[in-house]
Write a structure and sequence with these properties.
The protein is an alpha/beta fold and 258 residues long. It has eight helices and eight strands, in the order ααβαβαβαβαβααβββ. It has one domain: Rossmann fold, CATH 3.40.50. The longest helix has 21 residues.
Amino acid sequence: MTVAADGRSVDVGEARRFAAQAEAWWDAEGPFRPLHKLNPARLDFIRRVLLRRFSRDATDLRPFSGLDVLDLGSGGGLVAEPLARLGARVTGADVAEETVAAARLHAQQMGLDICYRCATAEDLAAGGDDFDAVLALEVLEHCADVEAFLGACRALVRPGGVFVFSTLNRTAKSFLLGVLAAEHVLRWVPQGTHDWNRFLTPDETRALLAAADFRCGGMEGLVYDACADRWRLGHDLSVNYIGWAEPSSGLGGGAGGD
């Protein structure tokens, strides 16, 4: 397995686990089934944030034309591809070459022009890259160093840009549902996918964002409806949650910013 140059935030063991399943990313009934189910709610939130942030027309079929979007931990492209269809210039970054190769192949098969890179957030920040929107979905709980990761994310967001994140709360409920049920009972994901001790409470996330020079703009819960077998946005942040943040100052962003 080939892994991008180690940044402080990268847990190589986590990267290896996901790389081993790279060919299964687009199998909706495979090990990434929960992400396929979660995706509509995540995309709904992202779309609303970007429409509002950049004053785009919701009736436009390609409302994000001209926007540069970075999807960190992009995996097989479950979020990158829909955003590309909505007009964004999308860069997907993942730390495992096997995952990047799978994403590139699928995008090619779909006729989508997405730039996939085997790189860490620190790699991209050090190279002076910057974007209108940076996404880190289901990434924070897998980071070896969340502070280093968020610091790199801050450097990647252009002035006036936005950062969108989603992760798991560290509660008794999230342990029961996100670890015991998901991994051991329902077997939605392989055992060992999550370390409950790495989950972040919303207050901890806000504090980490503030330390990285972000201002948290809001959070919503990602709530599983067992009867409908689908995820929806709601007020319950006790298990999964998604949010957005903006730069606290006008600083940050590399040479490509506006």
